[in-house]
Amino acid sequence: MPLPRLPSRYFARARFVVVVSTGLTLATLPASAVEPPESAQVKAAFVFNFFKFVEWPAQAKSQTPRGIGLCVIGNRPLDGNLSLLAGRKVGTRVIDVIHNPSPASASPCDLAYIADLDSSFLRDLRRVAPGTPTLTVSDQRGFIDEGGMIELRIIDGKVRFDINLLVARAANLQLSSQLLKLANRVVQ
Questions:
Q1: Would you say 42 and 82 are in contact if contact means Cβ atoms under 8 Å apart?
Q2: How is the chain split into domains, by residue range?
Q3: Residue 165 has what pLDDT?
């Protein structure tokens, strides 16, 4: 026996209710919860480009087998995208990705991406080797207020970044004026 046909306006009303309730649900979520799926790729591209706009002290060039040390601390979805940077060239130097080094063995880290703000890496790095010329980057909220150098953020659906220039200068890192102009906020 065939089912009775419901009027088409019933389906239109149901569709309207679903669309409105979905929109209201998404509107109440924090911005990070509706972060675009490709943002991890964009953040990894930002990390790669930071190498081009930062000058390390001559004596501080890392001693990795390839030339540039990118240390990834913690385990987050961005890790896979950062691992893809291994072997890429920045000028004549090649990126070597190092996962979860200890702060005491952070000398090969030219850039440390800290995925977990609860990690003691940043605090321990400052304690074990104060003034170490390691550019610290994270997408964790409040990172530059905790002593990090560059904080990646999602603003209006786009990846932006804030810079703590005081901390970078204390580590003898020179950030290019172009990078500072592109920053959403610079703490001086």
A1: no
A2: 36-187
A3: 97
The first and second tokens of residue 33, run together, are 């919860």
Picking from 163, 169, 144, 140, the residue whose alpha carbon sits closest to that of residue 153 is: 140
Per-position b or e across 22-57, b if 16+ CB within 10 A of its CB: eeeeeeeeeeeeeeeeebbeebbebbbebbeebebe
Per DSSP bridges, beta strands 150-155 and 158-164 are antiparallel
Please tell me the CATH code under which domain 36-187 is placed: 3.40.50
What span, in angstroms and rounded, lies between the C-alpha atoms of 1 and 18?
30
**Does the pLDDT value for residue 23 go beyond 50?**
no
Cα distance between residue 62 and residue 59, in whole Å: 9
Q: Which residues pair with 54 in a beta bridge?
A: 175
Neighbours of 12 (CB within 10 A): 10
What pLDDT digit, counting tens, does each position of 82-127 carry?
999 999 999 989 999 988 887 766 678 899 998 876 667 777 777 7
**DSSP secondary structure letters along 120-178:** SHHHHHHHHSTT---EEEE-STTTGGGT-SEEEEEETTEEEEEEEHHHHHHTT-EE-HH
Residue 139 CA: distances (Å) to CA of 43, 76, 163: 8, 11, 12
